[in-house]
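Translate sequence into structure tokens.
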Amino acid sequence: MRLSEYLTLRNKLKQSASKVILRLIHAFIWRIKIVRVDSITLFVPPNIFSPKFTITSKLLADVLIHELKEDDIVLDIGTGSGVLAIIAARRSARVYATDISLEALATAILNAKINNVLDKITFLKGSLFEPLRNLRFSLIIFNPPYLYGTPRSTYERAIVGDPYIIFKFLKEARDHLLPNGKVLMTYSTISSIKLLSHMLRLLHYKCDIVRHKRLPFEIIFVLRLTLGEDEGKLYFGNSVRY
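Result follows.
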């Protein structure tokens, strides 16, 4: 994919600013190491992405709480600190969580134990759906790296990546959704809306924006994706309010 066709110079500058801001937030978090997110206590060591003070994590957690059902079989892709898997484990039948980083998985396992849900979560090492074989899920969660670039650490892998990662996720998710299953995924207007819309049309996803937050130089939003024909266009005026 030629990013020059999709990402404007203005958005490139915004992405650079976001990387700096997120780095400063994490420098503070990594000093204190223990954070609270709602009723969840998390250990966040250096080099692990923190859900504290980050808008994407907060929005996705809020939506997840309202979308979960007691009989859901949930998959958390790129679990990181494990916060979303822990939320899901408190409200659903079973949770699977994957991460390509052993460091992140060790952190997530510890956090699941701290919050007394370790017995409800299966942790697996691998990229995206790689370790899941033929397993299918009623709900798949993904907080993807939507800032473009090449990650140089476990932390950067959570925020920086090639947009092909999102395309690959969307393509493979189709084979891992149960009938009437859905995907919850975050994105931002500082990445290419045109590129995301193209992906959704190409892979035949029906798309709803269920929550969004306007910031000074971007809109961060949570998508609910289901299989079915759609225009692939994204509208911010009618997001769901729980």
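Note: The chain has a mean pLDDT of 88.
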